[in-house]
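hey so i finally got around to running the thing on that chain from the lab meeting. sorry it took forever, my laptop kept dying and i had to restart like 3 times. anyway pasting the input first so we r on the same page abt which one it is
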Amino acid sequence: MKKFLLAGGLLLTTCLTAGCGETPQEATLPPVVKIVEAVDRGAVAFDTYPGVVKGRHEANLSFQTGGRIAFRNVEQGSIVNAGDVLMVIDPRDAIQSAGAGEAQVAAAKTQMELARVNLARYQELYKSDAIPAATLDQYQASFDAAEANYHTALANANQSRNSLEYTQLVAPAPGVITAVNAEAGQVVAVGQTVMTLVSLDEMEIEFSVPENKLMGALIGTPAEITFWANSQKNYGTVRELTPMADATTRTFRGRIALEEPVPGLGLGMTASVRLVAIPNASAGSYLLPLSAIYQTGDTAQVWVVAPDNTVSLKNVTVESFSGNEVIVRGLTAGDWVVTAGVQKLREGQTVRRAEDTP
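ok and heres what got predicted. didnt touch it at all, straight out
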């Protein structure tokens, strides 16, 4: 019995010393962490997007009067000058309306002149006490009404003449016709788009931004543009960013204004857009994954890995959030920040970097 107890005690001592089959090396290996280098956002280029060349000034043209289109003078892709007649509506109804308006003006003018003569006659009779004041007031009212009718007829006639002019669709500025939406013989309504005119005097680059990248595409952000038809780098600035996402793509449309005209640039050409910096993120701000933040009370911190692979907490100031990313201040360019498992670390602990682990 004593031999059995002695053997059991030796076995238990051996198990405790050896870790019950676990080697001492395996039990003391430092934890593996994922890290990312803190790069100053004032010196880094961000995301790249496909873009397309658009005209800054694009107008959907329509008639100010309705009717049947008699003919059109341009095709899609036609270059036009300001004042060119692009399309014409059958003017016969407008001509008749203008003629009727002129006739109404003539009739109203005749009535007004007759009322003027009668008023003058009765004013003389009133001066000689031949008629009472009430009778004179009646003729004064008749003249006032005739004069008002005359001015109304003049206004209607001017409107009819304008309608006759509106039967011609005229180019408001030089440019290129990019779309034709109506043909001869078609009846169109007032305000219905029949053509699209794009001015060629100023080109822009249109691109789309996903919602989690909006912080990197704010208005005023500098951009580098490379066209597929021209390998040289061009520069511009984000001029416009729509406040609402597209209902189909769920992306936000942006426009970049070029700093200088690009020779040979044509509408519809493709480009590569690289946003260089964010104007609200000056030097000293850093973009990190949200998982890197270690929150203790009201203080935001991150774990920084030293050259000897030990970790320490560093206080940071959170500026803004964008999706799963956060912009912070308080780091130093070149710091290596832990991005996963931050809740399991302790001050001064030795860790292994994931890229160094086989």
